[in-house]
Structure formats: structure tokens, C-alpha cells
Design a protein that fits this description.
75 residues, 1 helix, alpha+beta, three-stranded antiparallel sheet, single chain
């Protein structure tokens, strides 16, 4: 059984950095200038690259990248 968007709890945005938490307590961060999601709020430890359709990633694309990362980690 894979993860879905329902498994992410959006914690909000602070200074442009968006934060989600999984039901298991893992935190993921993203800033519109980052083309990755990160487990570290500074963005230095990228965990997954975001596939984007436009010039910059969107919040939806960041969420999709987190879910893909979680599903790959489960295998």
C-alpha cells in the first residue's frame, strides 16, 4: 500500500519555506526557489528532485515529489 497526499500534514509556511509532516513524524521542507524537497530546513540535505512543468516548482509539484519519495523508500 503506497502513500498518498492524505498521508501528509501541511504545517504551513515560514519565511517562504513550506513544511509537511508525515503521519510517522518525518518532516519535509520546500522553498519555491528549491528544485528539491529536503529533510533539513536549510535545504542542504536534498532528498528528492522535483519534476516541474514550468520555470519554478509549485506547491503541488513539491507535494507530489514527497509522495514519490515516500513510495520509493517503502520498497
Amino acid at each position: 500500500m503506497g502513500h498518498s497526499i492524505k498521508d501528509l500534514i501541511y504545517q504551513g509556511e515560514k519565511s517562504g519555506v513550506h513544511n509537511w509532516q508525515t503521519l510517522e513524524g518525518m518532516s519535509y521542507y520546500w522553498h519555491p526557489d528549491w528544485l528539491h524537497i529536503a529533510e533539513d530546513i536549510t535545504g542542504h540535505k536534498a532528498t528528492a528532485t522535483i519534476d516541474i512543468d514550468g520555470e519554478k516548482a509549485t506547491q503541488h509539484e513539491a507535494e507530489k515529489a514527497i509522495i514519490q519519495h515516500l513510495n520509493k523508500s517503502d520498497k
